[in-house]
TrEMBL record:
<keyword id="KW-0654">Proteoglycan</keyword>
<keyword id="KW-1015">Disulfide bond</keyword>
<dbReference type="InterPro" id="IPR016352">
    <property type="entry name" value="SLRP_I_decor/aspor/byglycan"/>
</dbReference>
<keyword id="KW-0677">Repeat</keyword>
<dbReference type="InterPro" id="IPR032675">
    <property type="entry name" value="LRR_dom_sf"/>
</dbReference>
<protein>
    <recommendedName>
        <fullName>Biglycan</fullName>
    </recommendedName>
</protein>
<feature type="disulfide bond">
    <location>
        <begin position="72"/>
        <end position="78"/>
    </location>
</feature>
<dbReference type="InterPro" id="IPR050333">
    <property type="entry name" value="SLRP"/>
</dbReference>
<feature type="signal peptide">
    <location>
        <begin position="1"/>
        <end position="22"/>
    </location>
</feature>
<keyword id="KW-0964">Secreted</keyword>
<dbReference type="GO" id="GO:0005615">
    <property type="term" value="C:extracellular space"/>
</dbReference>
<feature type="domain" description="LRRNT">
    <location>
        <begin position="71"/>
        <end position="103"/>
    </location>
</feature>
<feature type="disulfide bond">
    <location>
        <begin position="330"/>
        <end position="363"/>
    </location>
</feature>
<dbReference type="InterPro" id="IPR001611">
    <property type="entry name" value="Leu-rich_rpt"/>
</dbReference>
<keyword id="KW-0732">Signal</keyword>
<keyword id="KW-0325">Glycoprotein</keyword>
<feature type="disulfide bond">
    <location>
        <begin position="76"/>
        <end position="85"/>
    </location>
</feature>
């Protein structure tokens, strides 16, 4: 089984005159959504943002500011505006957090609620890590002092709703693995700077995504994997570059399902129950670089792949595909394809690979890029 990579392959979208061996790209500025957050990696990200001018401005000092003796919450480590209070068994956000703090790490504690004044005075905070606690309640005014915060990591908690009044400066929100069943209309209102939301492993059904839930967002990355979706959601942000809906219960891709997502570079639909892909439904994805359809019940190679000029990686393993036609992947016309394939996975399908014509993979970078493997009956 091939691993489903979390980070986006960041490819140059500039059309090339002839097919090229374009390398997969890596989405920069996003962390993985595992059980813990790498604080050192987050610090590096913060420093990179500072150099590029996208992080918090120079430390804000109000007129009444008077230098005080350095403070640090008991048991925590405070160094260079980074406060680390992880794995301390804390039940509440501690007091005495230095006002100049830029990164606050509270992961892997026993915190059950976020109170109104927990972050009072932390107007310069860049990133807040609350991963792997037991938080089920968040005061609606708790995040209001955090006017410059860009990254909020809230995964592996017990939230039942998206927290209210999130800072308008927020760029990245991770609320993976909570108990959210409903995303209300306007849940992300006022978050015009947001470009990444991780909602995976929440018990969200299609009906739980209310119309207008994502209004006003200009996301490039959205993940709603490991949920309870039975179809591709409607009315998601149109500017998405990455959409991950793997490990749901999606059964089909209808003609209009992907019409509004023309800017997608990566689409993840692996580990669903897809049996039918309506002809023409992939036509709109002309900028797609990577397509995941592995571990479904698809009976044939989806139509339209040959017309995707920039498509480089296709995961079709562990399906019910029994035949591969000579023009399933590569266009007939010369110069139509702008990039060669770097990977096509077809293993664990009932395909007689010796019956597949060699010309089928004429637009693949090399023979090692195609994986047939064995089919287990």
């Amino acid at each position: 089984m091939l691993p489903f990579s979390v980070v986006l392959l960041l490819l140059c979208a500039t059309p090339l005159p002839t097919p090229s061996l374009a390398l997969p790209f890596e989405q920069k500025g996003f962390l993985d959504f595992g059980k813990s957050i790498d604080v050192e990696g987050l610090m590096m990200m913060m420093m990179n943002d500072e150099e590029e001018g996208s992080a918090v401005e120079e430390y804000y000092k109000p007129e009444y500011y008077k230098p005080e003796q350095p403070t640090c919450p008991f048991g925590c480590q405070c160094n260079q505006k980074v406060v680390q209070c992880s794995d301390l068994g804390l039940h509440y956000v501690p007091y005495d957090i230095p006002p100049e703090t830029r990164l606050l790490d509270l992961q892997s504690n026993q915190i059950t609620e976020i109170r109104e004044d927990d972050f009072k005075g932390l107007s310069n905070l860049y990133a807040l890590v609350l991963v792997n606690n037991k938080i089920s309640r968040v005061h609606p005014r708790a995040f209001m002092p955090l006017k410059r915060m860009q990254k909020l990591y809230f995964s592996h908690n017990q939230l039942t709703a998206v927290p209210k009044n999130l800072p308008s400066s927020l760029v990245e929100l991770r609320i993976h693995d909570n108990r959210i069943k409903r995303v209300a209309a306007g849940a992300f209102s006022g978050l015009g700077s947001m470009n990444c939301i991780e909602l995976g492993r929440n018990p969200i059904q299609n009906s739980g995504l209310e119309p207008g839930a994502f209004d006003g967002l200009k996301l490039t990355f959205l993940r709603i994997s490991e949920a309870k979706l039975t179809g591709i959601p409607k009315d998601l942000p149109e500017g998405l570059h990455e959409l991950h809906l793997d490990q749901n219960q999606i059964q089909a891709i209808e003609l209009e399902d992907l019409r509004q997502y023309e800017g997608l570079h990566r689409l993840g639909l692996g580990y669903n129950h897809i049996r039918h892909i309506e002809h023409g439904s992939l036509y709109y994805l002309q900028n797609l670089r990577e397509l995941h359809l592995e571990n479904n019940r698809i009976p044939n190679v989806p139509g339209g792949l040959a017309g995707m000029k920039y498509l480089q990686v296709v995961y079709l393993h562990s399906n019910n595909i029994s035949q591969v036609e000579v023009n399933d992947f590569c266009p007939e016309g010369f110069g139509v394809k702008k990039t060669y394939y770097n990977g096509i996975s077809l293993f664990d399908n009932p395909i007689n690979y010796w019956e597949v014509e060699p010309a089928t993979f004429r637009c693949v970078s090399n023979r090692m890029a195609v994986q047939f493997g064995n089919h287990k009956k």
